[in-house]
Amino acid sequence: MIRYKRSGALFQLWKHNARWCIKLLIPPEIEEQYNHVVEVILLGERNRADIVALRENLDKYAATCNAGDLEGWMSLWTDEGIQMYPGAPSRVGKDQIRAGMRPAFDHFILKVEIAANPEIRVFGNWGFLRGNYTMSMVPKAGGETIKYDGKYLTIVEKQADGSWKTARDCFNSNVPET
Q1: What are the pLDDT digits (tens) for 94-121?
Q2: What's the CATH number where 114 sits?
Q3: Tens digit of pLDDT for each residue in 33-86?
Q4: How far is residue 55 CA from its own chain's centroid?
């Protein structure tokens, strides 16, 4: 492992499974200067393209929610996807996921924002995404806006056409229950 220090940040460089990896360690006193992921793995062109595609899927996830487009949102799921909704049994398959999410799309104006720089990892035809998000739900019939601050862990599967779809999704609140 090679260590290099510059502007108060420490870089580590090493080889793992025939790939070069670099990690940026940022001390707390200068952390605010960096508004991006602190770990980068140099994976080669194929994985880089997959990571970009998965970041675009997160953007589509938020855009379809914000547009009230349930079917567009559902297109991001595999047919046998599983959604592990907080405080409820798992929703298995697109029909259950659609039925469970329809009330949110029908009765609320959604505003979803995915936090910048989620963790995205790719392992062949599988990958995962982990990060934070905020959501506001404005009742279409009027009333108080519901605000949500949460985190997610999503497992994705690469499809035969090269696209990525959500196979498993689990999310919950960052705010303790009162």
Answers
A1: 999 999 999 999 999 999 999 988 999 9
A2: 3.10.450.50
A3: 554 443 444 444 457 889 889 999 999 999 999 999 999 999 999 999 999 999
A4: 8
d(CA 28, CA 116) in angstroms, rounded, equals 19
Over residues 122-164, the pLDDT tens digits come to: 988 999 999 999 999 999 999 999 999 999 999 999 999 999 9
End-to-end CA distance of the chain: 46
Domain count, the chain: 2
Q: Is residue 8 part of a domain?
A: yes
Longest dimension (CA), the chain: 60
Q: Are 52 and 131 in contact (CB under 8 A)?
A: no
CB-based contacts of 85: which residues, under 8 Å, 6+ apart?
Answer: 91, 100, 171
Q: CB under 8 Å to 13, separation ≥6 — which residues?
A: 1, 2, 3, 4, 20, 21, 22
How many other CB atoms are found less than 10 A from the CB of residue 173? 12
Whole-model pTM: value is 0.73
* Residue 19 near residue 6, CB atoms below 8 Å: no
Tokens of 40: 């980068």
